[in-house]
Design goal:
The complex is a heterodimer of chains A (221) and B (403). Chain A is elongated, with a radius of gyration of 19 Å. Chain A is built from ten helices and two strands. Chain A has two domains: 18-131, no CATH class; 137-220, no CATH class. In chain A, 43% of the residues are buried. Chain A has helices at 30-39, 42-55, 66-73, 78-85, 95-112, 146-153, 158-171, 178-187, 190-198, 206-220; strands at 6-27, 127-145. Chain A has 221 residues and is α+β, with helices and mostly antiparallel strands. Helix content of chain A is 52%, strand content 19%. Chain B has 403 residues and is of the alpha/beta class. Chain B has two domains: 4-185 and 379-393, Rossmann fold (3-Layer(aba) Sandwich); 198-377, Glycogen Phosphorylase B (Rossmann fold). In chain B, 46% of the residues are buried. The chains are: A alpha+beta (221), B alpha/beta (403). Chain A binds chain B through residues 15, 17-22, 24, 26, 41-43, 55-59, 62, 73, 124-126, 128, 130-137, 139-140, 155-157, 159, 171-172, and chain B through 12, 14-15, 17-18, 21-22, 25, 166, 169-170, 172-175, 178-182, 326-327, 335-336, 338-339, 369, 372-373, 376-377, 385-386, 389-390, 392-393, 399-403. Strand 2 of chain A pairs parallel with strand 13 of chain B, so a sheet runs across the interface.
Chain lengths: 221, 403
Amino acid sequence: MKETRKATAPFRFYTRLQLTELTGRRASNLQQLADGLREISGASIYHHTHRFLQQHQFLSPEPPNDFAYWTAGELGEEALAERLYSLDIMRFDSIRALREAIIATIEGYVKANPMASLKFAAEGREFHFLKSISFIMPTRHEAADLREFADILSRITVDSIYYHVFESRLRLEKGRNDFSKWFEDCLGERELSALVERLDPYTQTLEDLRRNLLRGIERSL
Amino acid sequence: MPLLEDYAPIVGQDVIDDLRLLSERLRGRTVRNVNSTAVGGGVAEILNRLVPLLRQVGVEASWDVIKGGDAFFAVTKKIHNALHGGGEGLTPQDKEIFMETSRANMEAVDTGADIMFIHDPQPMALVARKRENKWIWRCHVDVSRPEPGTWDFLMSFIGGYDASVFSAPQFSRELPLRQFQIAPSIDPLSDKNRDLEPGFIDSVMEKHSIPRDKPVVTQISRFDRLKDPLGVIEAWRLVKKYIDCRLVLAGGGAADDPEGMQVYAEVMERAKGDPDLHILLMKQDDLEVNALQRASDIVIQKSLKEGFGLTVSEALWKGKPVVASAVGGIPLQVAHKHSGLLCHSVEGAAFALKQLLNSPDYARKLGENGREHVRRNFLLTRHLKEYMLLFLALDRGEDLVNI
């Protein structure tokens, strides 16, 4: 077995567990949805663009956000839904920017299709704004080199992968995922780092993402 | 009583490890649950399972039951109906009865735990004993459209709480305190959900004289208009014009529930003479319900109104394709066309049944997805995790919490 290079600093795996908080705010039509989007907290935007991915992450490919799911399912606005779920979230490095893009998408659509603003969800099927409270904690797992990293990655919870890939990059506004950063900064694995950066985690299940990450690492070992 | 480790083969050792890691942050904290009944009903069922698990991971959880006479429980039944938007408001005498019993319980129940976890409206007034500790109100019912007078009465207690918990977003309303969403759960190791020997399943079908010569569609629910058993028969008859299949309607009915017996009689009348329609009035028997669900090709839950509707998760857990109304907590359990089919009418239910009966591969895929969805989101271990997170959230107001 080839000897693997020790990292300049170990990688500590964290995990994050989530609790959903209700805001009491709801929307019945697109205008109310856009108004709500303007006023709710970033934790709420984050929740609705990532919840589907977590709860239904064994299904793929799927609209990865609740706004798309609701506009298609309850208002029958399939074309708007398509624009919403095809928003390239990887392009945004802050929740604020993502919020603006979602609002602009909805308002642009309503402007071009004024009849859409007349549609209301049925009673009991309104959009409820919720938010994610994330509890972040260190696990007992720490990797000193790439082989240990792969070994841990193969059995760590999807919550941990989720934290390092999605939450850390976008919600903590680190700009890139933790794995790529460690590969480059602590192992000097530029190629692997770039490869992981290019994986679009929004169009695959977390288990597929785990497999793809492991495949990339295996090639570097 | 199962041990936490017994769930590892089902949810994964990594999930159990996370639960233990989380519990370290709560070690030594005392949590007292209070509700109004030790047996019967979903709340008691879940506390019976969750309290021992919390203790296993080092949280000093306990459970008290308030006492009350017939008059008190008549009032709380009235409150329950009024919260659902039906029934009449409370009279001044009703309020006095409620307060008198509540005062007696304030003396009887130890309210000194670090966290007081109050379930449903019956013990709500205990919050008058709040000191420096934290109080949570866990509301298991839908309060989105309550009778206003009754709601105002309950609001006089809600203000004392630190947080509230609802099962689904649409069950809540704007409140002057933090609200969390925690769905109920099923226990994969209980008699209602554990794996069964094929021989036992066969014996239950034989006992109820249900041949397995054609596909079986089943609805498990008590004989209640809100479960729409007549609508299920109507939908099944629309299906049967094209696809030969059986329908099983199975559920309990109490002799002291005159409306239930009337609904049962109507169902029997409607079923008369049809050998493919099996109406089973059963005593509470979790193993038999489990067997009936497992023997079914499709499970239907065509309720007109529903609380959370955990029978859907029970069926999905058994890998069954499900057709269910988009009411109450059901859309949280069934993502339409992904983990089951949702419907809004008799015709819609019939169409969905035909789709699944004609496309067994599609039906099987929905069932597989449904089981996975339940495994990740509606099992007892997820419930345990969220209760522990809730306890931690009481001390912290931020959206990102390092623990």
